[in-house]
Design goal:
Length: 280
């Protein structure tokens, strides 16, 4: 049956083309949308073994296909032990969902790096805070990207970064993170910042001295925020910083310490921000 032809292509050729198009499409989708598994949702191996399923949750609905295990490595998508539950879609419904997805206007929370739209991509993601340290001009940065195989470096808040190749989609999550659909993740240790130096800089900026100034509640709040964000730039921290400050000043460590209260608060929030940053 696979060698039956319409005069141009056999069924085998058409199925092979379909699989390759499926690979190309799924590999460019955001990783959170797509996965592959050798087992269905109920734990049974696909078709009794030797097959796998790839599934995507598009904004227009679920779509899926099965392929032989020999093609497993072509799909560069997350692997799950069990596939998500099939919603009962038919091939016709899957085609309608794909067609509807392709007819949508380009979503405003994602952009594709094409190799020729660097300005649009950077406008979307924002520049690294250290951009001005590394490049003297936009032209210099543009030349750097193009002479490094058009690999775009997408920096994370902890200093790590993704190497994003041409063709990858970049999705902006609701909390402001930029996630590429295809990329190589480069872990980078955040350099230590000397606390004593940081504290001295803060006092100089505030034109204040320990014990020489009456620190208001607003001053102490600014102190806590300053040192928390010196190690963690998450603008929506899980911890309630004001409640944490109240809890800390009521603690035994704070009450019994002979060190300056201002110094204690600064060090506490510095370490709190450092630990929170490492957990992300």
């Amino acid at each position: 049956m696979g060698e039956v032809s319409d005069g141009y292509h056999t069924f085998n050729e058409l199925y092979y083309y379909r699989m390759l198009y499926n690979v190309a499409f799924f590999n460019l989708l955001p990783k959170e949308w797509v996965h592959k598994s050798k087992k269905h949702h109920d734990g049974e191996e696909c078709f009794g073994g030797g097959w796998f399923i790839v599934m995507a949750e598009l904004p227009t609905g679920q779509v899926s296909n099965h392929y032989e295990l020999k093609d497993w490595d072509l799909f560069k998508v997350p692997e799950k032990e069990f596939a998500d539950e099939w919603d009962g879609h038919t091939p016709q419904e899957a085609a309608e969902r794909l067609h509807k997805y392709l007819q949508q206007e380009h979503p405003n929370n994602m952009i594709q790096w094409t190799g020729s739209n660097l300005k649009e991509v950077i406008d979307f993601t924002g520049k690294s805070p250290r951009f001005g340290e590394w490049f003297n001009s936009w032209e210099e940065y543009e030349n750097y990207v193009h002479t490094h195989n058009d690999i775009l470096k997408l920096f994370c808040k902890d200093g790590s970064y993704y190497e994003v190749p041409v063709g990858s989609w970049i999705v902006k999550t609701p909390d402001g993170y930029n996630l590429p659909s295809v990329a190589k993740y480069i872990q980078q240790e955040q350099p230590e910042i000397d606390f004593e130096v940081k504290f001295a800089e803060f006092l100089e900026r505030k034109d204040a001295e320990l014990g020489a100034k009456a620190w208001s509640e607003e001053d102490l709040r600014e102190l806590a925020l300053y040192f928390y964000y010196s190690r963690n730039d998450d603008k929506h921290p899980e911890v309630d910083l004001e409640k944490e400050a109240i809890k800390f000043v009521q603690s035994k460590e704070f009450i019994e310490s002979k060190e300056s209260p201002v110094l204690l608060i600064a060090r506490h929030f510095y370490e709190l921000g450092l630990n929170a940053g490492k957990e992300k």
